[in-house]
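Researcher: Quick test of sequence recovery. Tokens follow.
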């Protein structure tokens, strides 16, 4: 199952008409809109092809200027990533253990190797 959020753009004078059309449309679920013509909807599909078909339905609604996919969630992709994480040493094994929170020591962002120098520079300011 895939779920994606779509930002639909229309001109402000057509916002009510487009919102009503989206609410009646079986291709998506309406969530909210603003006064400048942006509308947020979500679509669901059993795959990318089904989502693209629903996106085309939204794009064909009168007065829709654009409909752009913003965020996407794919159950299959998530399952694949979880398998990779579980079968590798990417995630430290200690994160899968029950450790009292007060025993966890955070030493900063692992991507930034020179945190001590950074902290000293920051403290000078």
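Model:
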């Amino acid at each position: 199952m895939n779920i994606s959020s779509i930002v639909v753009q229309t001109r402000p004078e057509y916002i009510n008409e487009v919102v009503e059309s989206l609410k009646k449309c079986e291709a998506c679920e309406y969530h909210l809109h603003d006064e400048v013509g942006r509308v947020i909807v979500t679509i669901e599909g059993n795959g990318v092809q089904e989502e693209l078909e629903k996106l085309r339905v939204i794009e064909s609604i009168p007065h829709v200027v654009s409909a752009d996919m913003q965020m996407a969630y794919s159950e299959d992709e998530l399952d694949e990533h979880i398998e990779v994480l579980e079968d590798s040493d990417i995630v430290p094994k200690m994160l899968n253990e029950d450790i009292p929170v007060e025993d966890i020591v955070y030493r900063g962002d692992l991507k930034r190797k020179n945190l001590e120098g950074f902290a000293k520079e920051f403290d000078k300011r």
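The chain has a mean pLDDT of 82.
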